Amino acid sequence: MKKILTFVAVLLPLTSIAQQYKVTGKVPVKTKVYLFRTPELSKEQADSVVSKNGTFTFSGTTTNPELFYVVKKAAKAGQPGTMVPIVTDGNVTVDFTTQTASGTPENDALKAALTQVKPLSDRLKGVEKQFEDLEKSGKEPSEAELTKLSDSYAEAQGAMIEAVSAICKSNVDKTYPAYFLADFYSLIDKATLYNFYDGKAKFMQPFVVSHVCQLIEGWKRREPGQQFTDFDMEDPTGASRKLSDYVGKGNYVLVDFWASWCGPCRREIPNVKALYDKYHAQGFDVVGVSFDSDKAPWLNAIKKMNLPWHNISDLKGWKSKAAALYGINSIPSTLLIDPQGKIIATDLHGEELETQLNTIYEKSDVASMPNK
Fold this sequence. Notes:
Layout: E1 4-6, E2 19-26, E3 32-36, E4 45-50, E5 55-62, E6 67-72, E7 82-87, E8 91-95, E9 100-102, H1 105-137, H2 143-169, H3 178-184, H4 190-198, H5 210-221, E10 232-234, E11 240-242, E12 253-258, H6 263-279, E13 285-290, H7 295-304, E14 310-313, H8 321-326, E15 333-337, E16 343-346, H9 350-361, H10 364-367
Helix pairs in contact: 1-2, 6-9
Subcellular location: Cell envelope
Protein name: Antioxidant, AhpC/TSA family
EC number: 1.11.1.15
């Protein structure tokens, strides 16, 4: 079995002491057991071992406690395995029957927290199943039924968010809240996530929440007052283009993140076109950054909607470099950038965008600016 040296670059303290950990548990003879860095078991496997005499052991060294997932292979092919989250802060004992770990302060605390949130999680899953059953039934629900289900979901989700937020806020010096943050970060308000990140909460260090840290870093890059961050993609002809080819050249520019498959994006485009037609002669420009993954639908959408502005894409869908750079996890999304390349507003749509542009181009010095 290979030894693991876990190094987490995000928020790593300046001084760290290597810590030994050991993970043990009981399973049937010759059972394959895995160690993963994330609950997505198709990637980030850290280690694996075949049990001997009904037990398995993982051991290694970390500079800071990590959050791993111990997975027991299913007895029959095609069945899901059993997964247990653990924190590597010492000698850990895994119990696949209860799907919990114990033996260290962090793992005992994680076990207690899992027990605390289980009724809330079950309640939320129960409401989700009601929605699924209603959809499968093919029946048209009444407005009263939909309202009741929606209210139930909002209440269940609110209780879950409150519990997870409380666990995180009360344990900024612990690693185990990373388990909850990895799943529920999208439901926690941005200001709270900023506080966790800027305050160097210990649970922001494990690999499993590295995507949350990257998202926050992207949000910071798109805050009003920040200079835009450049990236390169291709235009519809296949030519390489940089955002800086269009931004910071003396004009106000709207960077519109969209995709051909995004209904809300396509519904917003007529509003953007109207403003483009109104102010383009005065210098206003638009750069469409597509999150498409296939070129044909992207080109067809540009042609069908007759988009007159610059269009670029790396055709990587949600794995687009722009999504990571600017912390974009939903579209449509926009950046309004001033003539010097400074971001002045984000996610303006409809009347808000129109009001902002009206304010800009009512100024005599801007109104007289030639198109470049």
